[in-house]
Amino acid sequence: MTVGPRSLAFRVIAFSTGWAILALIVISTIISTLYREASERGFESLLSAHLFNLIGSVGVSEDGALTGSPNLGDLRFSRPGSGWYWAVQPISDGLTGELRSSSMTKAIPSPSTAEVPFNSGFQRSYLADGIGAEDIAVFESEFVLDAQNRVARFRVMGNRSELEQEISSFERRLFGYLALFGFGMITINAVAILLGLRPLGRVRAALAMVREGAAQRLDGKFPAEIEPLANETNALIENNRRIVERSRTQVGNLAHSLKTPLAVLINEGRALGGAKGELIAEQAQAMQQQIEHYLKRARVAAQRDSVVYRTPVTPLLERLVRVIGKLAHGKDVTFTPPAVETVFAGEREDLEEILGNLLENAMKWSRQRIAVSVTAPAVAAADAPALFSIVIEDDGPGIPQDKAREALKRGKRLDETTPGTGLGLAIVADLVNEYGGKLLLERSELGGLKAIVQLRSVG
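and the corresponding structure tokens:
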């Protein structure tokens, strides 16, 4: 199945892929946001718990100095430069000493209360630069330690950079897993769509077989969604066949009904004799030729767009060339077949009519040589039919270029000394036009006429 911008499969896959990518982006954003919020809440809750633990572990000695050995249960507070620190500083007069964690090797300044005020619970939080240039979050509170209302400032600091690294690591793993999941989902989705549309490819192949004449109808089992389409197509093909057969029958009946009266007129005109009898016979014969021609054109018009006719070109031409070779005594008749088998998209009788008239014309006017060749169909555009060419050349007098169009007119004879009706080339031109082809008359390298017939091929 061809998958391009105009194909149904491409559109469905592109739409589903776009939707999957958008959904994965939204999902990853939501999960990442929720994880960040949960991590930050946990981080803040941990610092708040450490702060209250620190407050409960510090007291005041009799001489007014801060005392206590806080153990917050986290080894990071004992590792220098870890980003996790605590400190207790005296605020009131009569209170001395300062306590800090072993990880806090130097003081970390705090902003003034004007910059970051305390809340109603005498607590505040802010971000600061740590000892190792890391970002730290500071939870700070002022607390009354004894009955003398001596106040100390308690500070607990956590490594914010460490939190950001954990969040970034989670996001990278999340995006990686979702990308892998998305790739698998898109691949499975594309495979499912292609497999689901395969019956349409089978319908197309079956239609191609019908068009090439290899089958008369769409055969095979199709899914329930496509089976009505196949049934309607088969009904259309059958209806087209009935129309063609009915037209052919009517053409035959009309030709048969007119054949006897025209034959009677021709015989009576010849029996009558004289100028009037000859005129009657001549006009009746002309009527007979015209009726046969236009009835044939009507039949071809009915069959031209049919999808069930195909005629191999090489066998038919080989037979006609043998016949012409026997009739054209002493003349050299050659045939060059195509490199690949070529099939005409039409009925055998019509191709015989076209080639028979051209070969008869070449036999009549040639001196010694007649050359017939077939060129395989060229690669056509997507919206144009493939045309193959049949070339018939002779070494006769040919037709001047300025009179080539005149030679195609019905009943026009460029040489009145040679027997004929002047209908041969006109019939060929009409048949070729009815099949959507071209007839070209050029000067042959042999010296005579070069007739090129271009017709539609099958496949």
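(Above: one complete record from the training split.) The first helix runs from residue 8 to 56.
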